[in-house]
Amino acid sequence: MSPLTHFFGSWIIAAATTDNSRDRKLVTLAGVLPDVDGLGIIVDMARSAYSGQDSFFYYQYYHHYLTHGWPAAVVFTIVLTCFARRHFRTALLCFLVFNLHLLCDLFGSRGPTPADIWPIPYGEPLFHHPIFSWHGQWRLDGWQNMTIFVFLVFLELWLATRRGYSFVGFFNQKLDKIFVDVLKKWKRDLFGKSGK
Ligand SMILES: [Zn+2]
What we know:
Elements: H1 3-17, H2 21-32, H3 40-51, H4 57-62, H5 70-81, H6 87-107, E1 120-121, E2 131-132, H7 143-163, H8 173-191
The structure holds zinc ion.
Zinc ion binds at residues 34-35, 68, 101, 105.
């Protein structure tokens, strides 16, 4: 799935399971960080621009290989937990959310043709096994992923008006307050005074 979908899904889980903004951000990060092994696409784009020929070597070689397995889950969980307020809870959540990312990729990361199934090499880069794949994997840009993304965005906006903070707080607390106030006003205008 796309990093944005992972972000919203992880944020919603983090908001429901943590009690402070720092741990919330850490758990959200754990759900997005697996995709750092896709950053090779930046190198590919630079190479393509320089040579004039399309190349996705680094993206295709490293994405889902370096940080889409349990070794990266353990490393990221340890590193993120170092910054946590509630260590045990955050460690558990980071590990779970990280693995949820991998599960979601197993469901929806296929390329354009049915043959382009993208497996999850769960032991890499340390071990070659196990490798998980699913023959029903849907396209990365398929309607299933789009539907999940739109659903998560609307769910988050609705939840934000109830809890008083939103995903914007991941980036900036002041902006978040303004954003949530606007959301609450829209909700009042749409649904009446109670806003429920
Ligand atoms: Zn991923």
